[in-house]
Amino acid sequence: MNTSTRIAIAFLALAGTAGTSAFAANGQGQRGQNMKPQMRFERADADKSGDVTFEEFAAAMNTRLLDADENTDGKITVAEVADQIQRMRAERMAERLIKRFDANGDGELTKAEIESRQKKMFALLDRNDDGKIVKDEMPVRGWHGRDGKH
What's the pTM? Predict the structure, then answer.
C-alpha cells in the first residue's frame, strides 16, 4: 500500500472517529442508531481486555472503510463511499423492518408473519370494526386548514 493510500485511510479513520464521537455524544448507535458510547467501546475492544489499542481501533475503523473499496484497488472514491453509505442505510432499514414483523425472532420473515402484522395494522385502523377502512378512520398526520396550510 503506498503512502498516499495510507494517508487517505488515516484521514478517513480520523473523520470516522469524529463522526463516531458525534454519534456517541448524541446517543446514536448501532452504526449510528441508539448505541451508547460504552457499547461502542466494547465492540472496539476486540480482545475484551478493558482497553482499546491502536490496532483494535484501526481494525474497527478499517473494516468499514475497506469495505467501501469495491474494486479493491487500494483507493476509495466518492462513488464507492456513497455506495457504501447507501448500502448501510438500506441494511439498517431492512433490519428494522425484519425486526418489526418477525414474530418468532428468527431473523426471517414468512408470509404468515407479514399477514399477521397486516391484520393487526388493519384492525387498528378499522376503528368501528366493520371490516373496512374509510377516510375518516385514517390517522391525521397534522392539522391543516381549508387551504391546506398549518
Answer: 0.46
- Amino acid identity of residue 141, one-letter, is R
Distances (CA, A) of 122 to 4, 58, 135: 57, 48, 13
Cα end-to-end distance, the chain, whole Å: 57
Q: Are 126 and 137 in contact (CB under 8 A)?
A: yes
Task: Tell me how far apart the alpha carbons of residues 41 and 137 are, in angstroms, rounded to a whole number.
Answer: 47
* Residues 65 and 75 sit within 8 Å (Cβ to Cβ): no
Gap between the Cα atoms of 116 and 109, Å rounded: 11
Are the C-beta atoms of residues 107 and 115 closer than 8 Å to each other?
no
Q: Tell me: the pLDDT tens digits for 15-73?
A: 554 444 444 434 444 444 455 677 778 888 889 999 989 888 888 877 777 778 888 88
Dig out the grid coordinates for 11 from the structure. 484521514
Gap between the Cα atoms of 65 and 7, Å rounded: 13
Nearest to 99 by CA among 4, 17, 30: 30
> In angstroms, how far is CA 30 from the centroid of its own chain?
7
